[in-house]
Amino acid sequence: MKLNNIIYSFFLMLLFSACDSEKSLEESILDTSQPALSELDVWLRDSYVSPYNIEVLYEWDDNQVTQSRYLYPPTEENVKPLMEQILDIWINSYSEVGGDDFVREIAPRQIVLVGGYNVNPSGTITLGLAESGNKITLFRVDDLDFSDLEQTRRFFKTIQHEYCHILNQNKIFSESFGDITPSGYDGDWHLTSTENAREEGFITNYAKSRDSEDFAEMTSVMLTNSKEEYEAIIASIESETAVADLRAKEAIVADYFLKEWAIDIYELQAINYNKLIALTQN
Question: What does 9-61 look like in DSSP terms, one character per residue?
Answer without folding.
Answer: HHHHHHHHHHHHHHHHHHS--S--SPPPPPHHHHHHIIIIIHHH--EEE-S--
